[in-house]
Design goal:
homodimer, alpha/beta, seven-stranded mixed beta sheet, 5 helices
Amino acid sequence: MNLYDYIEEIPDFPVKGILFKDISLLLTKNEAVNKVKTDFLKLIKPYQVDLIGGLDARGFLFSTLIADALGVGSFMIRKEGKLPGGVISKEYELEYGVSKLSVKKNLDLKNKNIILIDDLLATGGTLRCAEDLISFSKGTVVSSLVVIELVALSGKDKLNSTVHSLLKYDT
Amino acid sequence: MNLYDYIEEIPDFPVKGILFKDISLLLTKNEAVNKVKTDFLKLIKPYQVDLIGGLDARGFLFSTLIADALGVGSFMIRKEGKLPGGVISKEYELEYGVSKLSVKKNLDLKNKNIILIDDLLATGGTLRCAEDLISFSKGTVVSSLVVIELVALSGKDKLNSTVHSLLKYDT
């Protein structure tokens, strides 16, 4: 099974000039999601993991799935205004604009080993912002997982943690 | 284990007068997520299921988890502008405003038995909109699953499919 066969490339989304990599088809195929799960679990086997952080919103598709398979909990790292109650927030630049991420203030992340999950690594702005939020909360990001990596954008260079990706694209 | 213990109630979110039910704490506890999974699987055991539809964004936390456990695929039902490529869209009213949901046009939902998943049922506007999108795509919603139901808002009455909820609140 070749996971690349399950990715649809869509030009000019969300803005002109971006060739968007869509995981919609992959999600509809159980064997493909199962392979993502198995591969993710293999990649993080070396780490002792306390919690999984899922990035809003496609990261949620995998964060509870992987957390449940590992027998740990997860939490949401959300865009501005989406989390209720007290939050810790940080602004970041992304491929096409500026945004803000938040985690709940009453999450106990101190001394916790955390794996971050998103569907895609582009410039690394989102994951770096998530790393900073965890670091501010005195947790440790032991690794990050993405299904797709746009290698030409060198997102890895921006991150403090090791990123593991399953599919690599030049553009 | 009592799942109610894992729900945090937060006043005036997202707007004044709403007592928001937050699943953030529940997510951080593996035993609670596992109970949600087990209970959901029990509830849908009578149905023959082809696909799970997850509602943007907290539905995604459970859609792939349940789909993977059942050995089927899933798909995203997303808010406006979030899905790339051709989409089918429908407007709906929610507890506090108006919004729009979309599914990908190239999803093959025809004659498929579908379970919808969201974290919460309030007025039923979101799930009803999702039902209509599935029905327009010639699929069948055999049932819907939510973690939390705000029974006083009578969301069930608006829906065509049977909704199963794990936690019921009067306000």
